[in-house]
Structure formats: C-alpha cells, structure tokens
Amino acid sequence: MPRRFASFLASVLLAAAGVVATTGAAGAVTVEQVCVGTWAVTYDPPITNTPRVVEGHLTGYFPTCTNLAAPSGSYDQVFTDTVSCATLLSAGAAARTYTWSNPLAAPTTFAYNWTVSDVAGQAVITNTGLITGGTFAGASAEQVAVLVTPDVLGCGGAGISSLTGPTTLTVFRP
Q1: What is the mean pLDDT of residues 54-83?
Q2: Which of 69, 118, 131, 151 could form a disulfide with 136 if both were Cys (CB 3.0 to 4.6 A apart)?
Q3: Burial of 148 (0-12, 13-18, 19+ CB in 10 A)
Q4: Which is nearest to 75 in space by CA: 35, 45, 130, 43?
C-alpha cells in the first residue's frame, strides 16, 4: 500500500473513531462499539465514464470490534443507482443489517442516510443514522468507508466491476 494512501487511511480511521464529543454530564456520549474492516462493491454492469443504472452489491467484513458481545461482524446489501467512475455512489438513504460472530448477539439493523465526498481523490462514504433493531437498538451509528479512485484506463474501456476499501463502524449511546 503506497505510503500516501496509508497515511490518508490512518487519518480517515482516526477521524471516524474520534467523532465522540462530550459536552458535560447531560450531553455525554458513550462509544458502545467500534469495528474496523473492509468493504467491497461490485457493479453489474461494470461502471464506466458514462453514468448508467447499475445494480450494486455491497459486502463488508469487520474482523475486529471492541464490544466483546459482538467481536466481529459482516453485512451484505444490494442497491440500484445511476453511477459512473466519477460518481461511485449517489447520496441517499437505506438500511442494512449487521450480523455478529457471536450467535447470542442479535443482528443489528442500521437505518441511515449517506453522503459521498471526495477527499484527496478518494470517495469517502459517510453513513449516519439510528440502530432500529437488534443488539444495539436505540443507539446511533456512523460508518465511514473509503473507495480508491477507479483505474482511468479501465473506466475508459470495458469498465470496472468491483472496488474495495477500508471501513469503520462506530456505535454511540447517549
């Protein structure tokens, strides 16, 4: 991994983990869970420089989480969007379910809005919302994911069928 990208990745992950702010006893926020992992998106048909409707398939894996009741997890999600190599994902709203490695931890449903921003040439997707069911029900959460800018030659040719990058999930309890 190039040193510049590794530095960028470290900055994104630290920012995601450091989102917690306390404003006195009445406004204290507790971090209940932090998970670090990777995610991937596959596009059908592959994305090119021309915007078009594609079906996307998101998969995420968190091998390392801080809450011992849910020490690792994963998710799987399908979406349809109009995208291109320049616009990897449009902003919007959705829900996904995280499944935890501990069978005693109920799957967690996350209803969220997401934004996409360009940071140093990388697409940074920020999902913010509420945990509506499962082990962390009633908490709020933020998932930050990064996608590397697609290969220019691939975008101009047959297209790019998949991208991957780092992701962090943080669950907050008021």
Answers
A1: 96
A2: 131
A3: middle
A4: 35
Would you say 58 and 41 are in contact if contact means Cβ atoms under 8 Å apart? yes
Asked if residue 159 lies in contact with residue 45, where contact means CB atoms within 8 angstroms, the answer is yes
First-to-last CA distance in the chain? 37
For residue 130, list its beta bridge partners: 111, 140
Q: For the whole model, what pTM was predicted?
A: 0.83
Rg (CA), the chain: 17
pLDDT tens across 102-141, in order?
999 999 999 999 999 988 888 999 999 999 999 999 999 9
Q: If DSSP codes are grouped into helix, strand and coil, which group holds residue 12? A: helix
Helix (H, G, I), strand (E, B) or coil at 91: coil
